[in-house]
Every structure is written in structure tokens, then in C-alpha cells.
Amino acid sequence: MKKGIRGVCFVVLLGLILGHIYSVLSWKDTAGNYLSSVQQLYHTPKQTMDVVFMGSSHCYCSIYPEYLWRDYGYSAFDMAVSGQDKSANYYSLLELLKTQSPQVVFVEAYALLYDGYSQEGNAYRNLLSMKNSINNFRLIREAVDEEKQMDYLLRWPIVHTRYAELTRYDFVQYAPSEYGRGANWGWGQGTGAWPEAAKSCMSAAPLSEENLRWLDRILTLGAEKDIDIVFYVAPMQVYNEEQAIYNGAAEYVTAAGAEWIDCNKLFDEMGISADTDFEDAYHCNAHGAEKVTSYMGRYLQENYELEDHRGDDTYTAWDQSLRLYQHCEAAQGLEQLDMESYLKAVAELEGVKLIVALEGDYKSSTLPMDQYAAWLGVPPEQYETGGKWVISEGEVKAFLDNMSTEIVCVELSGRDFAVLENVSLKSGESVLNNIRINGEYYGKALNGLTVIVYDPLREAIISARGIA
Q: Are 59 and 234 in contact (CB under 8 A)?
């Protein structure tokens, strides 16, 4: 009897240990940098999504649900994964419909142009992010070669190799993967797409067997669940052969009673510019996404009676995601500003914490250090002695003068801490390592002004400069 109890206890304990280890090693992103639309889905309260956008990176780069929330109060979500193919698209939608009942689903159509995964990372993002479920099981059986299926089903043979690449967010939850709404924001600017093929190609290619099966699956699912299906082509570079495939699919789905929106044919109506609205020829940046999303917002307003959920506590994830987006947007271009513009800009940022240091022979600078310090919130009387400050919304939260032998520890967020000290007083040498954040040194100016901008919402340093 005792041996039996011990055996059961051993199995339970082993299961708990393996479960914890797997939670650390598990695949955690669908778009890179620990951002996971799948985790966001699982953290979303049931029956709160009115609009869903499905697709690959072209979807999460062209549609920002934050804009729809900001402008209309629509609870939209991007169920988008890098390289999402036809099978992953269908089973991801099935998984979403287990907890959500959107009125309309927009399906980004790029999957018509390829089958499978061109990058191993995209295979992991699509096949390992979903919870163990019948949908995940069927997806793997359908999308993976038979000899590799067991590796994906068990997951351990793949994820156990991640030991060397583990980072902080393998051990703690990456907050935007809880409340983000699926978009992957970007402000980079590269060579944009030109829509000539979309406008000039009138031919329609016959649908392949795989494409026909996918379109029928989505259309049938929409009919079964009483969900309107809208297929759309995100703004991107296309060639005649690809446009012909899109044209053939457009004919098919519209004949079946669904909508088809080709953004490449609507460049002028949307106001899209190849010069300003793309990160590269295949992906919109935030400027392009705002134009595409605004068009979709008008489409929804004209064709549906969706509720404005702003102010409803059930939808706090949409509020949080918009707030994070606004933080990221406000911080764009800081490093390209001249010094005075930079200091004024960081002083005006909302919700951040400034770690400021005046050290060494800073008063001998030809720059107006006293004015710079005042802009940042340093009290005039403390400027004279120099030191280190943590300042939030113009209020000093912590101060250590340059002659103190104390060590000041300041909480920056629930997970991050700053340590202010004067190591030079102990070592007898002029040193830069007087500011530590989570153990890492961030000194910038030995004889001058150091400014470190920390965003508690992003739990990250977003800028750091030294001025001598």
C-alpha cells in the first residue's frame, strides 16, 4: 500500500516538475520577440470579440485593432501568425470559435500563394503555440510530414533544444501577450509596394485543389456559425501571376456570397503611399496600417451595427493595448532628435520614469546643463550638488547626491529595479557604473548628464543618452 502511495506521489511530483520545465521551454511567440496572438486569445474573456482578422504577417502589419478601438470602440482582434498557411488559418479560426462568436471574420488571402512553411520558425509559431487540443492535433496531422508528426505532437523533442536561448520572458509572462490584440506594430520605413499588377492584370487563374479546399472550408464554417466572411488582400507587392490567383479566388468567393477586398486596387481611395507607408514591399508600417484599418472601420460602420464597448470594464484588454500602442508611438524617433529636442520630448512623455545623473565636472560644459536638468524635473537646489534622480511625471521619486555613500534602490515596475550609488567614493576613481538596472550598468556620461528613459508599461528601457 505504501509503495503504491509513493508511486502515485512520485508520478504526480514528476508531472509537476516536467510541467514547470515545459512552461519555461515552450514556444512563446507567433510574431517574434515573445509576442503571441495565441496567448492573447487565451487571455481574452469569452464572447468579447466582435470582429476578427485572420492571416499571416501581412495581417498583423496591416490591421491594428487599436485604431478600431480608439475610433469606434469596436472589439477587434488579429488572430494572425507569421507564415500562417491555409491549414493553420482554418484550425486557428476553429480554436478561436471555441470561446468567441464574432459577427464578421476578415481572412487575409496571402495563403492562396503558398503551401506549408518556408521557415522553420514559422512552422513552430503555427504548430506549437496552440494548446494541446483536437484542433492542434488535426493541424499537425494535416500540415506535417508523417515522420515528423510525433515530434510536434509531443513537443519535447523540439523545445528541449531551447536551453541556450532562454531569456527573461521564458520565466515570466510577457505582458503584451496577455492584453495585446494581435497586431505587431512597426514604424520602420522601407521601399514600398507598387500596385500596377493589381490594377492592370484582369486574368483569373483557375483555383488549385488546395486553394479551393481552403476557401470552401472557410466559407462553410462561416455559414455554419452564422459569421460573415470577408476575404482581403493586404497592401503588398504582387506580380501578374499572383494577381491572377487573387482574381480567380475573388470570382469564386463573391459568387458564393462572400465579400472580397483587394487593398492593392484601392491605393488611391485609401491614400496609401509607397514612399511612407511600408516597412518593406510586403508589409505595412503603422502609417499604412492606419489607412487600411480606417478603411475597414468605415466598412464595418456602413455594413454592421457594432457596439461601442469603450468604458466597459469587460474590455480592459483593448484599453491596455491602446495605451501601450500610444506609449510606443510617442517614443518613435527619439534617437534621431537633436539634443535639445530630445530632452524636451522625453520630459513630455507620459507614464515613463526618467533616471537622470549629473556627475563629474558637468558644470564646466559649454552646454546649458542647468536648463537641461530643469526640463527633466531636477530641482534647482539639487543641481548645484549633482547626483542621481528617479523622476516620474515631473516629481522626484528618489535622489542620491554625489557625496553620499548610501545605496538607493528604486522599484521601476513590478519586475525591474534601479540601484543608484557612488562607486567612485569607494574605489577612488571616476567611474561610470553608478546606475544599475537589474544588475546591468547604464552609465553614459562621466562628466555630464545621463538620461535613461524607462517605460513601466513596456517594462523596458526605451532610450538612454549621455551628454557631456
A: yes
pTM beyond 0.85: the answer is yes
Cα–Cα nearest to 278, from 68, 62, 113:
62
Asked whether 87 and 142 are in contact (CB, 8 A), the reply is yes
What are 466's strand-pairing partners?
450
Rounded CA separation 221/235 (Å): 26
CA distance 125 to 219: 25
Question: How does pLDDT run across 260-289, given as a tens digit for each residue?
Answer: 999 999 999 999 999 999 999 999 999 999
> Of 278, 280, 275, 298, which Cα lies nearest the Cα of 288?
278
* CA gyration radius, the chain: 26
Distance of alpha carbon 447 from the chain centroid: 38
Please give the grid coordinates belonging to residue 92: 486557428
- Provide the pLDDT for residue 3: 64
In the structure grid, which three cell numbers stand for residue 76, read together? Answer: 477587434
Helix (H, G, I), strand (E, B) or coil at 173: coil
One-letter amino acid of 151: D
Backbone φ and ψ of 361, nearest 5°: -90, 55
pLDDT higher than 80, residue 82: yes
* Cα–Cα dist 92/174, whole Å: 21
pLDDT digits (tens, 9 = 90+) for 294-326: 999 999 999 999 999 999 999 999 999 999 999
Local confidence band at 199 (pLDDT 50, 70, 90 cut-offs): confident
d(C-alpha 444, C-alpha 343), whole Å:
15
| Distances from the Cα of 426 to the Cα of 356, 374, 434, angstroms | 21, 29, 11
8-state DSSP, 31:
S
DSSP for 306-356, please give it.
----TT-GGGHHHHHHHHHHHHHHHTTTGGGS-HHHHHHHHHH-SS-EEEE
| Residue 180 cell numbers, joined | 495585446
Q: Is 56 left (phi over 0), alpha (psi -120 to 50) or beta?
A: beta
**How far apart are alpha carbons 285 and 332 in whole angstroms?**
12
CA atoms within 13 A on the CB side of 12: 6
Give me the residue label for grid cell 490594377.
199
